[in-house]
Specification:
single chain; seven-stranded mixed β-sheet; Rossmann fold; about 15% strand; alpha/beta
């Protein structure tokens, strides 16, 4: 796959439809079938998880996806004001950016954008309908929105056996290891808003009604948890490790458990050079020739032969 695949010109990004039916038109429509109702539920759930169409108009000054001195100063001021007050700023709502996963609402449970969420939707739907064996897993979950969606989609398509694995440090990103040259200069370990506790992620599952005994949490660094995880087979593997080392840890621990026909989805392949390097080296090392398909400006996937 050429590098040009991930340019904006190479991926058609379709905005939300401006000709959606009005409430009056909806009232005149026939009641949807069960299948249609479930599809509509999943479409609504995606938008709720990412706040698309309901983006926050303000965001805390302390909201931090990348470390900065300015945000650290804001945090000190916020602490001085105490818990009764919150420093906020008006934010410009960019619906297209939310859909593309370039800038999410600060209160969203997922930042991956609609196109990558649609890709995840298609993957789960496909493995259920084609009866590809194995659980589904996301490694690197932030607030858990994509994993919540996978659990809901399994229900929608009548699957009552697969487990949903939710793997994360729940402490944010690790600092780059000294011996990994590819990760040098990509230190997000100080980005406190990327550090979401397992309790908060569990609360998000509970909020949407999907925290049950089929959802399993793997807490810790990937190198310590994934190899020993009691997962027999995987049908959908979604890797969101950002860094070279984290991405390689995910692939080396889990790829052999992916069933033939299963999906390997990589969130950061187009935008993060360390992630792309890890994927390319792993595929070369394992002689994987299945083509990588672009999802949007950064996401990519392939299906295992």
């Amino acid at each position: 796959m050429t590098q040009g695949v991930f340019t904006e010109q190479a991926v058609e990004l379709v905005p939300l439809s401006s000709d959606n039916p009005s409430f009056a038109q909806l009232a005149e429509m026939e009641a949807p079938s069960t299948d249609q109702a479930r599809e509509r539920y999943l479409e609504l759930l995606k938008r709720c998880l990412m706040r698309i169409g309901m983006e926050a108009r303000f965001e805390p000054l302390t909201y931090q996806r990348t470390p900065s001195v300015r945000t650290s100063v804001y945090r000190l001021l916020a602490n001085a004001f105490g818990r009764r007050y919150e420093l906020v700023r008006r934010r410009k709502v960019n619906r297209q950016a939310s859909m593309e996963g370039r800038g999410c609402s600060p209160d969203a449970e997922s930042m991956i954008g609609l196109y990558r969420m649609n890709n995840l939707h298609d993957a789960v739907k496909t493995v259920v309908r084609e009866e590809i064996p194995g659980d589904v897993i996301e490694a690197g979950v932030w607030r858990g929105g994509a994993a919540v969606f996978m659990r809901a989609a399994l229900w929608a398509y009548g699957d009552d056996t697969r487990k949903v694995w939710v793997a994360d440090s729940f402490e944010g990103l690790p600092p780059p290891s000294a011996g990994i040259a590819a990760d040098a200069g990509y230190d997000l370990s100080g980005a406190v808003d990327l550090a979401v506790s397992v309790e908060e992620v569990m609360a998000n599952f509970r909020k949407y009604g999907w925290l049950d005994d089929r959802v399993h949490f793997l807490k810790g660094w990937f190198k310590d948890t994934l190899h020993a995880a009691p997962i027999e087979a995987i049908s959908v593997l979604r890797a969101d490790g950002d860094l070279y080392e984290s991405t390689m840890d995910i692939l080396t621990a889990l790829y052999d458990k992916v069933s033939p026909g299963g999906f390997i989805i990589v969130d950061d392949y187009g935008a993060w050079p360390p992630c792309r390097k890890a994927v390319d080296e792993f595929r070369a090392m394992r002689k994987i020739t299945q083509p990588i398909h672009a999802v949007d400006w950064t996401g990519a996937y392939w299906r295992k032969a």
